[in-house]
Specification:
The chain is of the alpha/beta class. The protein is built from twelve helices and ten strands. It is globular and about 65 Å long.
């Protein structure tokens, strides 16, 4: 499904009816002085025949209209372009005040499992290297904090495929992009490479951040050595269904750290584990008995969690290993 995804829609968030109702709703919201008002076309607009191409917008509140052409493009591009459009409504301030060793984190959509926790840990790891996170556009950053993103010295992609337009937008304003080499901070080794590439860009000392990552890795390695199931994971086959940078980074880490073997998604018969989106990992067990699905994005409906988990950073490594060991 290539439509713009939404994790939860409350009844009061959806306006049923014609443009007159929408214009009235916009006026009411405008009177309340919201920082930003966003109108998203649903596929139903074309079915009902409502024309939302032009209507009276808000007078005081910034307004953004995300049109239904997003229905026909992939989710990564739709998310990326939406974040870029939101930034465009802010308008660049006439004077920037660049802060040394400061960054914007981009490319971590709310569809990822534990996206908020991932951003928080990556922010803490960067702080250990003396690098401040000014804003997290599209990654939980509030509208009020997005204005500070123009004062960042550079932009750091988490998943490159989710922030191409966003990085170009900042680059056009003179805010450089950190070259992470396409590495996504998933797994201990990749998290270390990711933070080291940011430190190289700024000439910062990564030793404290690397020390934190290696400490987490040593504790985990010790548990793996004494685990009854540790040897059973070696040589187990897995496949990954995600964007190329996530597939590559996760596969390299599982092969080098755990000793697993990657298979192609088209050859599921010999697989023991499949990493992917929630609905795909939910279905794979029915289509291929014996294959355990591990969700990276769009949490599956059949699994409710009360303990926070995440995909990226050191704690994200623990989540992946937890899923692997519990699936033996």
């Amino acid at each position: 499904d290539n439509r713009v995804q939404c994790l939860r829609v409350e009844n009061e968030d959806y306006i049923f009816g014609t443009r007159d109702k929408i214009e009235k709703a916009l006026r009411n919201m405008d009177d309340n002085g919201y920082g930003l008002i966003v109108l998203i076309d649903s596929p139903g607009v074309s079915v009902t025949g409502d024309s939302l191409r032009s209507f009276r917008c808000t007078k005081t509140s910034p307004f953004l209209h995300l049109k239904s052409r997003f229905d026909s493009i992939d989710y990564t591009s739709a998310y990326d372009h939406s974040v870029k459009q939101i930034l465009d409504t802010l308008k660049e301030p006439p004077f920037r005040h660049p802060q040394k060793r400061s960054v914007n984190l981009v490319g971590c959509p709310p569809s990822l499992i534990g996206w908020k926790e991932s951003v928080e840990e990556l922010t803490d790891i960067l702080a250990l290297a003396g690098i401040d996170v000014m804003s997290t556009p599209g990654c939980g950053g509030s509208y009020g904090t997005l204005g500070t993103s123009f004062d960042a010295e550079a932009t750091v992609p988490i998943i490159p495929e989710y922030c191409k337009d966003t990085c170009k937008y900042y680059s056009d304003l003179g805010i450089g992009k950190v070259d992470t080499g396409g590495v996504v901070p998933i797994g201990f080794d990749n998290t270390r490479r990711w933070i080291e590439s940011v430190c190289v860009h700024f000439g910062s000392d990564p030793s404290k951040a690397v020390e934190y990552i290696e400490l987490c890795q040593k504790r985990t390695s010790k548990l793996m050595r004494i685990s009854y199931y540790g040897d059973m994971l070696e040589r187990s086959r897995f496949c990954v269904q995600s964007v190329p940078s996530v597939e590559s980074s996760l596969s390299n880490w599982l092969e080098s750290y755990v000793g697993m073997i990657r298979s192609d998604v088209s050859d599921m018969q010999d697989c023991r584990f499949m990493f992917g989106m929630g609905f795909a990992t939910e279905q794979v067990g029915f289509d291929y008995p014996g294959v355990r699905g591990i969700a990276l994005e769009f949490p599956p409906l059949y699994k409710t969690r009360f303990v926070p988990v995440q995909t990226f950073g050191c704690k994200g490594s623990l989540y992946i290993l937890d899923e692997l060991f519990s699936g033996i």
